[in-house]
Each structure stands twice: as C-alpha cells, then as structure tokens.
Amino acid sequence: MRKFKTESKKLLDLMINSIYTNREIFLRELISNASDAVDKLYFRSLTDKDIQLGKDELAIRVSYDKDARTVTVSDSGIGMTKDELDRNLGTIAHSDSLAFKLDNAEAQGDDVDIIGQFGVGFYSAFMVAKSVRVVSRAYGSDEAWAWESDGVEGYSIQEAERAGHGTDIILTLKDDSENDTYDTFLSEYGLKSLIKRYSNYVRYPVQMEVSKSREKPKPEDAGDDYTPEYETYFELDTINSMVPIWKRNKSEVAEEEYNEFYKTDFHDFADPARTFSVHAEGALSYDALLFIPGRAPFDLYSKDFKKGLALYSSNVLIMEKCEELLPDHYNFVRGVVDSQDLTLNISRETLQHNSQLRAIGRKIEKKITSELQKMRDNDREEYEKFFENFGRGLKFGIYTSYGMLKDQLADLLLFYSAKQERLVTLPEYVEAMPEGQKAIYYAAGESIDRLGKLPVVKTVLGKGYDVLLCTQDVDEFCFQSMMTYGPEPELDAEDKPIEGTGPKELKNVASGDLDLASEEEKKEAEEAAKENEALFAAMKDALGDAVTSVAVSSRLTDAPACISAAGPISLEMERIMAQMPDGGEAPKSERVLELNVKHRVFDVLKAAQEAGDADKVKLYAEVLYNQALIVEGMPIDDPVAYANAVTKLMA
Prior knowledge:
By secondary structure, the chain is of the alpha+beta class. The protein folds into 4 domains: 2-212, Histidine kinase-like ATPase, C-terminal domain (Heat Shock Protein 90); 245-378, Ribosomal Protein S5, domain 2; 406-508, 3-Layer(aba) Sandwich (Rossmann fold), CATH 3.40.50; 519-650, Up-down Bundle (Four Helix Bundle (Hemerythrin (Met), subunit A)), CATH 1.20.120. 35% of the residues lie in helices and 20% in strands. Strand 10 (274-280) and strand 11 form a beta hairpin. Helix 9 packs across helix 14, helix 16 crosses helix 19 (614-631) and helix 19 (614-631) packs across helix 20. The longest helix has 25 residues, at 354-378. Belongs to the heat shock protein 90 family. Homodimer.
C-alpha cells in the first residue's frame, strides 16, 4: 500500500468531515471532475487533427448496483496513466484540472470550461463511501490502471482492464446506521434528483439507465374484454439539460420555455409576471435570468422566508439561494446567476470574496429597478397587480433604510388617490397638484372607504388638494422615513431657491398643523381660543392625561371635533404598534382634541360652561373625545362608560 502524500490522515479527515457541509454534493463533484476529463480530451481534439471524436463518445454515465451497494460515475474523457493516478489522487489538494486551466488559459476560449480548481472534490466521495475504486485508461494508451483506497491511510495502484479511454469511479457506499442513511443514493430517483439539482447544466450528457413502462402488444386471440398489460424496460436516458436556458439567445427561447423553466425550478404553478436577463462581460462576467413572480408566496412576509438567487459557477450549482445577490426590498425576485469568474472557496459551497457578489448584486438591483419602471410606465394594469403582491416590501425598503433608499424606490410606490379615485404614483400626485400646494397630504388607516369619510380628509379635498389614502401598516412608517419627496429646489440667478420649487413635505392630515387656513381664519381661531380659554381648560381637566391639549381646529368644516397628534407618533402608528406582539408597552401619541368653533355643538359647550355646569362640560368633553376616536378608528378606553354617557344625554 502506498501512503498518501501530505499529512494524509489529518488532511483527508478534514476533506471528509469539515470542508463539505452537505454530503449529497459528492455526485456533483464527481460529475464535475468527469466533465473536466471530457473537456480536456475535447480540447486536445481541437489542436490535434489525429484525434477524431464522435458525439456519442463525449458523455458521462451514472449507474448503481443496489445489491453490491455501489454507485459508479464513468466518463469517456482523457483518462489517466499510472503516474497521473498516483500524482492526482495520491496527492490531496493537487489539481491537474487547475494546472491544465492555467497552462491553456489563452487557448481555451468558450469551447472548454474547466470546473475543477482545488483537487479536493474527488475526496468528497469518502463522505458516503467506505471504499473507492478508480479505473482509468489514458487516451492513446493500451493500459488501464486501478486506484483503490478506503480513505484512511493510503491507496493501492494495480493493473486493470477497461475497454476504452476514460475513467470509472466506483463507490462502495457505507452501511446505513441509526443516524445516517445512504440508501437514497442507491435508487434511480435519488440519483436522478441529484443530477437534476446540481449538474443539470453540465455541458456534456449525463446518462443513466432508467426504468420505463410500455404497453405489451395485444395478443391476436385477445377477446373484446382484453385489458392492456404493461411491462417495465430499461433505456439509457440523458438526465441533464446541458445548455442552460440563461445562456441561450433570447430570440431562440419561447416565452413558454421561460415560463416552464420558472415553474419547474422555482416550484410555482403560476407564470411569472416578468422575465428578463442580464449578460455582463468585463472584469466580472456573468449571466443572469430573473423572474418577477405573478403571485406572492404564502410565506413571503414570514421570518422563515429566505431570499436569494440560485448561484452557478461554470453551469454547476453552488448555492440554491445566494442571499447576497438580492437586497431585502427585492426579496421576491427569483432566478439564477452564473459566472465562471467567481472565486469559490475550497468546497465550492461559498465564495472567498464577497466583493464579487456585491458587485453583481448592485448591477442586478439596478436591472430590477429598471424593469419595474418599464412595467409601471408601459403596462400599468400588470404593475398594479405586481404592487398588490409585493409593494409592501418596497415600502419596507424605504423604512428600514431610514429613508436612504427613497430616491431609488419612491417612484415605484402606488397609493390610492381620494381625488382621482385610482392608484397613483408620487410623481403623478405632484404633477396634478394645484399651484400653491405646499405639501403632499395623506391619511392612514384600515380601509379606503373609512378614510375617505374622515372629516379632515373632506376638508383637504374641499381646499382642492388631493389626499393619498394609505391602508397598509407600513405606509405611515414609510412616509415618516421619507419626510419629503421631490427634487432639490431650483435656483435663481443669485443661486437662491425659487419659491414653490424643491421637495414637498409629506403630511398626515391627522397630525400637526396642516397650514391650510387663510390669515383671516387663523386670526379668527386665535381669537376663539383666547375667548374660550376657560372652556378649553375645563375640558382638558375633564379628559386628564388622555389629551395633551384642547384647541381650536382649523381643519374641520362639518364635524364638531377631531383628534390629531402633535408629536412624531401619529394615531395610526400608535394603533399599529399597540397590535405588535412584543409584550412591551406601545408608545402613545400626543393627542390633541380639536374643536370646530363654528359647529352648533360648540355653542352647547359654551352654554354649559357659561352656566357653570361643570358636570355637563365634563360629559360633553368625554363624548366628543370618544366620538373622535371612533371616527379615527382608534379604540376607546371604556365603551360601557361611553354608552352610558350617550344614554344620559338622550334621557
């Protein structure tokens, strides 16, 4: 027995138990090695006219023997001599493929795509095998040699027999135990699944004998009641697709093919809403095929949902979901990225340089943004369906980035316009603004119908201004993060901002001062506040800590009262945070009870105050406060007390 070169036992143990995290990738590694061997022979045929290869010679075969517990991977590649077996398999981490790749870097072109880099993929076989036998015959040689090892101390090399050039790798699988099962690799379905999953786009046919069923010929003497009989037979099938759909010219691929690929590979029953590709060449070359789903997966907003694109290197699957390739706000995008320029780690399961992923990710993000803009501008109906499914994620992107992404994402948002009675973008809202409008107004709540009936919304609409009706829990947080929307102000000849230009403030109609009153109305409000100072103080005392103040409203026309929020936390934010299951006490808004001094109810309040009826003032204050809460969709603290108060007024 020959000893492994290098610190064999420790290093081999490292190969088997530490480098790879998923033992099923052994087949990926062996098929990749077989592909390299075929590639090397094909490359020689390009430079040596004496080498004539038929199409059927360039193939890889996978087979299994359940009784003998063996899995065999065979190729018709360049094969190895005795010395090459000793050098390549006896020296761990020696990669003959890497040496070939470097020696022929300029001559390879697109015709050859060597996958191997580290010389360790072969040893992944020992994760599932208790012994491995390699029988190889070099092209042009009459001799075949067998390398055999149990993966512990060393290996042996002996003469063997093989009909033609190429290599057979025979794995004798480990026995099943209580904790480990290897029988899945001894089934047609199990091996086919692994080939489809990891090696579907290896450039050479990966073939297996598979079982099929066919109807037996009908006997000549069969009667009318004859029932067809079927038989099982075996046939050599090509399991892999070979040419990735993302590397084919778009003009050569029908939309149905893209749709079928998407539904099959990403397990969706609906066609994608959009399909687009990226082909980049330069310092970092890659191909990408991306899909915007036609529907949202049920777990999209759950903590278990995992984003990411399938990452391939030289057509071999590296990661099923590479998270670094997608930002969170585009987590719904599905697809594949394939690059032979990636610097993989030794196990080919992750990358050594995440800067490469980040560079690809940035370009993919720009492409997705561009495609969404095209959909918004050219197919509005389809875009509105998309936004219904995934718009929440775009809003969260602005919120979680503290508004840093608003320049990229804000124009993709849609909101319901109370004035136009349809979904509009922020640019469309701004374009329709009348001259003199200083802010973008919005109302946040649970339903468009209820928001449209809010007194303050009607007031803003009455001024000729539109109101965006926001019904998603993230809307308020998104707008608070944005703060403003629009380009920087235009400058005059003296580089001073031109009045009316510049970004517009985003204002919740239920928060703060909307600044909608005329100078005359403001003066009237100030006079009314001063004149009724004692009444407002009495109502504040009656309501206690429930409100921070009672004030004259400049935003009401028909309603007697409303609740607004004076601080950074709006009523809607308070309601949403109160529903969060964090167990802590939700922050409260600084509530202000605003009174419409022109409403006849205010006359009743004044009369009670002037009559010195403190109990009635307290009763009126509580009723108006609770009514305003109900109109805003906020819960009232004591519904029974409110009902009793209304009953008392009616009695």
